[in-house]
């Protein structure tokens, strides 16, 4: 953190991009370096899209870096759809990452995203539901909090839900 702070104090551009289009915030978010992310946010590092169409928020979510996602959601200026997709992707990633597999966190973050979708009853944010895919057991993605609640105790269904969410978002 000290090196990052020093460079920023020396007027290094917090939004400078590597050849892949990623910024320091992308790299820190993906690696889960919470204090560096905090410092970059403090210095107004922007939520830019990299060469793969991913923001630092999505990169952190795909990498199961829940603390970074929560920090960015608390401090970054992002729209409602971006917030929801980050929570969904984080939940889906916990269902489909061998090293970070945690089905309880899968449900938790998918549920938070669903609550955010339904927070404003006059402005619901509907999902773009994908057609059924045989590889995912011909399941369709949960559309309501009640549908999600119905699979809460079904590890296989939550795993498939995560795969479908990743397919839609990524």
TrEMBL record:
<dbReference type="InterPro" id="IPR002110">
    <property type="entry name" value="Ankyrin_rpt"/>
</dbReference>
<keyword id="KW-0833">Ubl conjugation pathway</keyword>
<protein>
    <recommendedName>
        <fullName>Protein fem-1 homolog B</fullName>
    </recommendedName>
</protein>
<keyword id="KW-0040">ANK repeat</keyword>
<comment type="pathway">
    <text>Protein modification; protein ubiquitination.</text>
</comment>
<dbReference type="GO" id="GO:0005737">
    <property type="term" value="C:cytoplasm"/>
</dbReference>
<dbReference type="GO" id="GO:0005634">
    <property type="term" value="C:nucleus"/>
</dbReference>
<keyword id="KW-0677">Repeat</keyword>
<dbReference type="Pfam" id="PF12796">
    <property type="entry name" value="Ank_2"/>
</dbReference>
<comment type="similarity">
    <text>Belongs to the fem-1 family.</text>
</comment>
<feature type="repeat" description="ANK">
    <location>
        <begin position="20"/>
        <end position="42"/>
    </location>
</feature>
<dbReference type="InterPro" id="IPR036770">
    <property type="entry name" value="Ankyrin_rpt-contain_sf"/>
</dbReference>
